Amino acid sequence: MQHWYVYLMRCADDSLYCGITTNIDRRLKEHNAGTASKYTRPRRPVKVAACGEVPDKSTALKLEITIKKQHRNDKIALLKSSTIALQ
Hints:
Helices cover 37% and strands 26% of the residues. By secondary structure, it is of the alpha+beta class. It has one domain (4-86): GIY-YIG endonuclease (3-Layer(aba) Sandwich), CATH 3.40.1440.10. Strands 2-1-3-4 form a 4-stranded antiparallel sheet.
């Protein structure tokens, strides 16, 4: 069974980017190489601000959408109150 993760990346300009992946280390490398997203490309380097495992892709996508709709402070609070552990 494949593991899915929801993550928050902290960009060089201190903005936050939320996404999902099956391999957090690979995804971090892709973001820092400039091949992962248009948003993070000009805001490199990025680092993992928070990451957590969820049961499946559907759950990951739903949580990602919920987080992306939140304001910055609410994103952090939501992650702190969920099953996602801050790194």
